[in-house]
Design brief:
- With 345 residues, this protein is of the alpha+beta class.
- The protein has two domains: 33-151, no CATH class; 169-344, Histidine kinase-like ATPase, C-terminal domain (Heat Shock Protein 90).
- The protein has helices at 33-52, 58-85, 87-91, 95-119, 128-168, 171-187, 189-207, 216-234, 258-270, 309-322, and strands at residues 214-215, 238-243, 252-253, 277-286, 289-297, 327-333, 336-344.
- It has a five-stranded mixed β-sheet with strand order 2-4-5-7-6, covered by helices on one side. The chain has a two-stranded antiparallel ribbon with strand order 1-3.
C-alpha cells in the first residue's frame, strides 16, 4: 500500500538537536520549544507595555524597547538555558525549593541583562535592583504558567485514559475474542493460549497505573498484541504491514496512544469490508524527529464514520506532552485513510 502522498501537505521538520525527555519529578519544565517561544514573547510584551509609561512618542518607544530588548532577550534565554540544564538537579528538590531557585535564577538573569547594557555603554546609571526585581517577577509568572499547564494536563490524561480503557474493553470486542478462543481450544490449543495471553496483556496495560510517558517501542508491542487478536478473528481479511525504524523506538509518547489508532483502522477499514482491508503501521526517524503513520484502506463508497473521539484524545494528549514539537494530521485520499504524527526524540 503506497501511502507516502496521502498527507503530502504535512510539514516536514528536522531540528538540529534532540529534545530532552520530560522528568516527571519537575514541577515545571522549560526544555520545550513552545516554552522558549512563549517566554520570549511574554518578556517582550511586558517590556513594550512598561516602556510606554516613559515614552514621549512612538519613535521614542521603539528606541527604548530596542535598547531594553538588548538586555532582556539574552537574560530570558539565559534563564531558560540554565533551568533546562539544571532540570535533573531541580527534580531532586521539593517543589517549594524549585520555585525559590527559579526566582533566584530570574533575579540573576535580570542582573545579567542589566550588566550587558551597562558594559556596552548603552545604559547610564544601571538600575540593578529594579532589574533583579523584574527578573524575579517575570520568572515567577512564567513558572506559575508552566505549573498551571502541568496541572491542566492531569485531568485531560485521566479522561483520555478512561475513554481509551472503555474502547479497549468494549463488550463486543471481548465477546468476539473469547468466542475465537473457544473455537480454537480443541482444534488449536496452542493458538488459543496465545490469543488469551494477548488479551491478558491488553487488559494488563489498560488497568495498571500508567507512567507519564512510554517509549514508541512499548506502544508498538501493545499494538502488535491487539492486531494478533484481531488477526484470529478476521483471518485473511486483515492484512497487516509493518515498516519500523529501530532508531525511532526511544521516542516518548503518552501511554496507550498508538493502540486506539490501530483499533480505529480495524473498525473503519476491515470490519465493514467483506473483502477485508490493509493496515500499515510505519515509523521513521528523521534527524531528531520521529514520524509515525497508521494507514488503512477504506471500503469503496464509504467514508470514515464515527464521532472522532479517539482522534481528538490522541491529538490533545500529544499536544499536552510535546507542545508545538508534536504534530498530528489525519486525512482520507483515494480510498486510503492515514493518521500521521511527528514527535521529538
Amino acid at each position: 500500500m503506497k501511502d507516502t502522498q496521502i498527507l503530502s501537505t504535512f510539514q516536514e521538520s528536522n531540528p538540529a538537536h534532540a529534545a530532552t525527555q520530560t522528568d516527571t519529578a519537575l514541577v515545571f519544565d522549560a526544555c520545550q520549544m513552545g516554552v522558549v517561544l512563549r517566554a520570549v514573547l511574554f518578556v517582550e510584551l511586558s517590556v513594550g507595555v512598561v516602556v510606554m509609561f516613559a515614552s514621549g512618542s512612538f519613535m521614542d518607544w521603539v528606541t527604548r524597547v530596542s535598547l531594553i530588548t538588548g538586555g532582556a532577550l539574552p537574560a530570558t534565554l539565559a534563564w531558560i538555558l540554565t533551568t533546562c540544564m539544571a532540570k535533573r538537579l531541580l527534580a531532586r528538590m521539593v517543589p517549594v525549593v524549585q520555585y525559590f531557585v527559579a526566582a533566584v535564577l530570574g533575579a540573576i538573569a535580570g542582573l545579567y541583562g542589566c550588566g550587558l547594557l551597562s558594559v556596552s555603554g548603552l545604559l547610564e546609571g544601571a538600575p540593578w535592583m529594579a532589574s533583579a526585581c523584574a527578573g524575579t517577577l517575570l520568572s515567577s509568572v512564567l513558572v506559575g504558567a508552566l505549573v498551571m499547564r502541568a496541572k491542566g494536563r492531569m485531568p485531560a490524561d485521566t479522561a483520555a485514559r478512561l475513554i481509551e480503557l472503555q474502547s479497549r474493553i468494549r463488550p463486543h470486542f471481548l465477546f468476539n475474542t473469547l468466542n475465537s478462543a473457544i473455537a480454537l481450544v480443541r482444534a488449536e490449543p496452542a493458538k488459543a493460549e496465545t490469543l488469551l495471553e494477548d488479551l491478558s496483556d491488553l487488559f494488563r496495560h489498560a488497568l495498571i497505573e500508567s507512567n507519564e510517558s512510554v517509549t514508541l517501542a512499548e506502544e508498538i508491542a501493545l499494538a502488535e498484541r491487539y492486531l494478533a487478536i484481531e488477526k484470529v478473528r478476521f483471518g485473511d481479511r486483515l492484512q497487516v504491514e509493518w515498516s519500523l525504524d529501530p532508531a525511532a523506538n526511544l521516542a516518548q509518547l503518552p501511554p496507550l496512544l498508538l493502540q486506539p489508532l490501530v483499533e480505529n483502522a480495524v473498525c473503519h477499514g476491515v470490519e465493514p469490508s467483506a473483502s477485508g482491508a490493509e493496515v500499515k503501521i510505519s515509523t521513521q526517524r528523521r534527524g531528531s524527529v520521529v514520524v509515525i503513520k497508521v494507514t488503512n484502506t477504506v471500503p469503496a463508497g464509504q467514508g470514515v464514520k464515527g464521532h472522532g473521539l479517539a482522534l481528538r484524545n490522541v491529538r490533545e494528549r500529544l499536544s499536552l506532552m510535546h507542545d508545538v514539537q508534536g504534530q498530528f494530521r489525519s486525512g482520507l485520499k483515494d480510498g486510503i485513510y492515514q493518521v500521521r504524527m511527528e514527535v521529538p526524540i
